[in-house]
Amino acid sequence: MDYRLKTMNQTGKLYLVPTPIGNLEDITFRAIRVLKEVDLILAEDTRTSAPLLKHFDIQKKVFAHHQHNEHQSSNEIIKFLLMGQNIALISDAGTPAISDPGFFLVREALKFNIAVECLPGATAFVPALVNSGFPTDKFCFEGFLPLKKGRQTRYKFLADEERTIILYESPHRLLKTLDEMATYFGADRQISVSRELTKMFEETVRGTVAEIKTYYETHPVKGEFVICVAGKN
Questions:
Q1: pTM of the predicted model as reported, rounded to 2 decimal places
Q2: What is d(CA 129, CA 203) in angstroms, rounded to the nearest whole number?
Q3: In the sheet that 225-229 helps form, which strands lie side by side, from edge to edge?
Q4: Are the beta carbons of 193 and 172 closer than 8 angstroms?
Q5: What is the mean pLDDT of residues 153-167?
C-alpha cells in the first residue's frame, strides 16, 4: 500500500473523491489509485457506483452514505477513521458535498482532528458556467433552490444579484422554474441552460428566460440541468 495513504499508529484519512458526471474518461489517475488503496468506500448509492468501480477494477468494500443516513452512519465512520482506516467518499456523480452528501461527515472528521483531503475533479457547474458566456470572475453557486419553504424569498434575494448565478434543477421541475424566473428575474433576463454534460446528448441552450421556456416546451426535458443566470445589470 502507498505510504502516503497509511502510516502506522496514525488515524486514518478521509478522502473526498470526485467521480465522472457522465463520461468515464473524466476520472483522474489519482482518483483511481486512491479508490484502490483505501480500506473502504462510501457511496451515495451503491447500485449507481457499482458499474464505475467495476469498470476500473476497484474491488473494495462499499457502504451506503447518503442524505437519509449520513448523521447516523457518520458516527461509525469516525470510529473507523480513528482506528486508522482510510476511507473514500464518492457521490453518484461529481464532487462529494457539492449539492451531495459530504459536508456533515467532513465537519465531524475535523472535530476529531482527522485528516481530510478532497481530490480535484469533475463537478457539473464549472463547465456549465464556462459554456454560458457569462462573467466567470465573480459568480454565486446556489445549487438546488428550496422546494417549498423559502423558495420565493430566495428568488427575491437573487433578483438583484449582480454576479452570475448558478442553479441546479431536475427535469420535472425545469419548466416551473423557468416560469418562476420570468416572474422574479424578468422574462428578458439572459440565461444559459446545460444538460447531460459530458454525455452523448450534451446540450447548452442560451437566450432569454422566455426563449428558453419556449424551446423546452417543444424539446425533450431529460437529464440533470445546470442553469446559469446573467447578473442584474
A1: 0.89
A2: 13
A3: 139-144, 164-169, 225-229, 190-195, 203-208
A4: no
A5: 97
